[in-house]
């Protein structure tokens, strides 16, 4: 017998009472410690600003030292490194040009950029992200209100029912997601709510999920972006404002991972996640062991702060 736990561990053989108890104890200890339990893949894009002499080259060199590897610098979605002239290795971190940040200077001398991660998994991936954010701060990078933090979450394991549940739950709980970001960010044109972008969002999304419409027909600049589904097997959450605070980013990513992991429950139902009246999404995820309580508490605090 093979059993796959929610956190990705695999157990082969008969699962006795002692093994079940040991797994629950270990998982609860990790939850209590606030660790990221999900083994789902993530990709992160960090938009930042700076002023001369903190150029893109200077930031890349600082990341080289912190990560112990060469960090590529490219144009927008470029595949050739401006530093070494070689092909971009997508298993490594890179810094891209982003015209929406209105940089001073060009190329390696630009003062703004978007730091793009390789595929990250688990607590190790989160810890690397926190190291990158710390290094950016120390190198002189800053955040302006126009910056964003974009998070891709892998969903290749979700079937049509699971994806439909994700879409429908987002639509019914979208206001709750936006309650976690400042009011000014909610008006940003690069992360519009579906309620501003679409008239019948779930019907269009269901057509994309079932292959009845190309994902390229979906609006890109929304809080939940479905365009990467076909090409990358991910969905992108764009609504969070820019940050170089690793602890804040970790809690947000844990929340997103818990949300997507919860879509594996009752996967034969094309319905939104049904929560008891008065229960927030983050409280539900904590109760169902998808989200560490520390992260859930941070979401509650943010909802109060930005109401």
Q: Rg to the nearest angstrom?
A: 20 Å
Which blocks of ≥5 consecutive residues have pLDDT under 50? 1-5, 7-15
Alpha-carbon distance between the two ends: 49 Å
Helix content: 40-55%
Mean pLDDT: 87
| Secondary structure: number of strands | 10
Strand content: 5-15%
Q: Mind summarizing the main beta sheet? A: 8 strands, mixed
Q: Enumerate how many helices there are, as a single number.
A: 11
Summarize the helix and strand pattern as letters: EEHEHEEEEHEHHHHEHEHHH
Structural class: alpha+beta
Shape: globular
Overview of this structure, please?
With 307 residues, this protein is an alpha+beta fold. Helix content is 40%, strand content 12%. The protein has eleven helices and ten strands. Strands 3, 4, 5, 6, 7, 8, 9 and 10 form an eight-stranded mixed β-sheet that branches. A two-stranded antiparallel sheet has the order 1-2. A hairpin with a 5-residue loop joins strand 1 (2-4) and strand 2 (10-12). Helix 3 packs antiparallel against helix 9 (246-262) and helix 10 runs antiparallel to helix 11. The longest helix is centred in the middle third of the chain and has 19 residues, at 160-178. The termini are far apart. Mean pLDDT is 87; it is low at 1-5 and 7-15.
């Amino acid at each position: 017998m093979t059993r796959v736990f929610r956190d990705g561990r695999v157990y082969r053989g008969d699962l006795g009472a002692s093994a079940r108890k040991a797994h629950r104890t270990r998982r609860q200890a990790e939850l209590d410690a606030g660790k990221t339990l999900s083994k789902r893949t993530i990709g992160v894009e960090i938009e930042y600003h700076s002023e001369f002499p903190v150029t893109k080259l200077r930031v890349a060199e600082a990341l080289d030292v912190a990560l112990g590897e060469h960090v590529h610098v490219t144009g927008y979605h470029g595949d050739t490194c401006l530093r070494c002239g070689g092909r971009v290795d997508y298993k490594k971190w890179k810094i891209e040009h982003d015209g929406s940040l209105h940089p001073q200077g060009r190329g390696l001398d630009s003062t703004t950029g978007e730091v793009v991660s390789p595929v990250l998994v688990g607590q190790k991936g989160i810890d690397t992200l926190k190291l990158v954010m710390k290094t950016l701060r120390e190198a002189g990078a800053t955040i302006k209100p126009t910056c964003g933090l974009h998070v891709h979450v892998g969903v290749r394991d979700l079937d049509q029912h699971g994806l439909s549940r994700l879409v429908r739950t987002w639509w019914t709980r979208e206001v709750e997601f936006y309650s976690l970001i400042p009011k000014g960010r909610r008006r940003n044109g690069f992360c519009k709510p579906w309620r501003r972008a679409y008239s019948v969002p779930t019907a269009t999304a269901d057509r994309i999920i079932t292959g009845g419409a190309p994902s390229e027909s979906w609006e890109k600049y929304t809080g939940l972006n479905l365009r990467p589904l076909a090409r990358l097997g991910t969905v992108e959450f764009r609504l969070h404002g820019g940050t170089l605070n690793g602890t804040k980013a970790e809690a947000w990513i844990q929340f997103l991972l818990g949300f997507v992991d919860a879509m594996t429950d009752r996967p034969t139902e094309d319905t939104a996640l049904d929560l008891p009246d008065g229960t927030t999404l983050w409280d539900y995820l904590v109760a169902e062991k998808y989200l560490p309580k520390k992260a859930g508490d941070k979401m509650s605090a943010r909802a109060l702060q930005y109401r």
